[in-house]
Design goal:
HEPN_MAE_28990; mainly alpha; MAE-28990/MAE-18760-like HEPN domain-containing protein; 8 helices
């Protein structure tokens, strides 16, 4: 992924990420509608797998684009909310978690304290982990890690887990899925709505600089 330095570049990236996914799912809707009755169940089954892929893909790529933007703002660690500091210093925080050696822990703490006045650097390749299983629990964790409110999504957690992820698992394991074209179209609209909401939340967070720590919290 190229460096995202401006809000317009972030917007363009998110628009592109969302645009081709909408186009592909819209094309599949047309295929389902025009399919003969014997082929419809097969296309719907494929549609569930594709819908999940777009759900996971957009959340992961959209989140990564946001972190890309943040890391290219030249902001010091001490100016970022704690959840974003974690992305840059996770390796050293892990040392504190697993190491039983005092010297290793001391070096990790020293490094973290020294880094706080340096520009934040986030390793984008491994920052966002959907665990190839983007359930509501995994999504919730991603939202928290990006300081994005979960209020707009919580009422849809059951839909994510039962209507999308569970069905996708059944298909992936070769189980039969009895789902009508109408139900699939409705689910697709719901998931696209969640993806649009996430896109809007990222855009708003970037525009309002919600990744920054309040000035009063930064050490003088």
């Amino acid at each position: 992924m190229s460096k995202i330095r401006t809000l317009s570049q972030l917007q363009e990236n998110l628009d592109n990420e969302m645009g081709w996914r909408i186009k592909e799912l819209s094309s599949l809707k047309v295929s389902v509608k025009g399919a003969v009755s014997i082929a419809e169940p097969t296309i719907v089954r494929a549609g569930i797998a594709l819908l999940y892929a777009h759900w996971e893909g957009f959340i992961k790529n959209g989140s990564t684009a946001y972190l890309n933007y943040i890391t290219n703002q030249g902001i010091k660690y001490e100016e970022l909310k704690s959840c974003f500091v974690v992305f840059g210093l996770k390796g050293y925080l892990n040392t504190l978690t697993v190491s039983r050696k005092a010297e290793a822990n001391e070096k990790a703490i020293d490094f973290i304290m020294e880094q706080m006045t340096n520009p934040a650097k986030i390793s984008l390749s491994s920052a966002i982990d959907t665990e190839s299983n983007l359930t509501s629990k995994v999504f919730d964790n991603i939202a928290v890690s990006l300081s994005i409110s979960r209020t707009a999504y919580e009422s849809k957690y059951n839909l994510i887990d039962q209507s999308l992820v569970l069905r996708r698992h059944k298909i992936a394991h070769g189980e039969y899925l009895d789902l009508s074209a109408k139900e699939w179209r409705s689910l697709t609209d719901e998931v696209l709505s969640l993806m649009r909401q996430f896109k809007t939340d990222i855009e708003n967070a970037a525009s309002l600089q919600l990744y920054r720590r309040a000035a009063s919290e930064i050490a003088a």
